[in-house]
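re: the backbone from monday

yeah here it is again, tokenized this time
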């Protein structure tokens, strides 16, 4: 059951086939949206996720390509009769601005609005964001243009680990956050202020000793350039893939840890059990 669905894989400029980077992490009892862009209700429906199941939202940082869809999601859930509370986590820099943004829409005057619980996370490494029966989620600050966090998901029923760099320059915080993870999802916008190249993502994956590397937040469509998989392969000896919209990563306990090929290129045997790609 535990799985991650990539809802968008593009950098700040989306294309028809690649939305801005965001994803949803699904457990038995909790469903966590990581960033919120575009038209969230439509995107979730395309991914086969019922908005009623959302329990938590993590805002990694307050840039439009990561948070622009949040007001629409909250409004649509309210219009469609949501009553259950939802939790929103992020650094104070992000949460303060989310509340200001919602205030511009006068959401306090929307009648019978469901409870929204804001949690401001400290700007410290391996902060516990959420500890529930499905997973333990931790955050660490990363090096972006504004305060931002990367995330670590420890799936309790399978003892598997997913790390996500978020938007960041190469930094030791990402390496420590990703230590020993089965999967690292790392941005690959290109070497620039606040961002990383695919080669640098590979270096982080090698230092952290992860099993697989998925590149995300890269240039897509007509803006795409270079061979990112080959570039990351120059510095990482494990399997490298491009994250794609609606790709599903399965973290079920039935998949043996050895299948993740920790640090080496594994075979294609039964790969469909751990990963699948579906088009809406």
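seq for it, each position gets an aa:
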């Amino acid at each position: 059951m535990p799985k991650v669905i990539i809802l968008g894989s593009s950098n700040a400029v989306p294309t028809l086939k690649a939305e801005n980077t965001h994803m949803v992490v699904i457990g038995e009892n909790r469903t966590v949206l990581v960033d919120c862009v575009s038209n969230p209700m439509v995107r979730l429906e395309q991914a086969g996720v019922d908005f009623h199941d959302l329990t938590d939202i993590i805002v990694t940082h307050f840039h439009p390509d990561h948070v622009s869809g949040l007001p629409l999601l909250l409004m649509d859930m309210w219009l469609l009769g949501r009553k259950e509370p939802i939790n929103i986590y992020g650094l104070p820099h992000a949460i303060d601005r989310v509340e200001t943004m919602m205030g511009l829409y006068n959401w306090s005057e929307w009648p019978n609005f469901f409870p929204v619980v804001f949690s401001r996370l400290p700007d410290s490494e391996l902060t516990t964001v959420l500890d529930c029966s499905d997973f333990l989620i931790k955050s660490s600050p990363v090096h972006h243009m504004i305060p931002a966090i990367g995330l670590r998901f420890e799936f309790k029923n399978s003892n598997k680990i997913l790390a996500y760099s978020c938007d960041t320059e190469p930094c030791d915080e990402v390496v420590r956050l990703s230590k020993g993870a089965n999967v690292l999802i790392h941005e690959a916008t290109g070497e620039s202020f606040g961002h990383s190249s695919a080669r640098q993502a590979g270096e982080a994956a090698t230092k952290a000793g992860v099993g697989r590397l998925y590149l995300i937040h890269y240039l897509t469509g007509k803006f795409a350039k270079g061979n990112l998989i080959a570039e990351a392969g120059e510095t990482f000896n494990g399997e490298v893939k491009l994250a794609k919209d609606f790709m599903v990563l399965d973290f079920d306990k039935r998949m043996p840890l050895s299948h993740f090929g920790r640090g080496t290129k594994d075979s294609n045997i039964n790969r469909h059990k751990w990963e699948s790609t579906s088009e809406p």
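Helices lie at 40-46, 64-67, 70-79, 92-104, 172-177, 198-208, 228-233, 271-274. The chain has one domain: 3-269.
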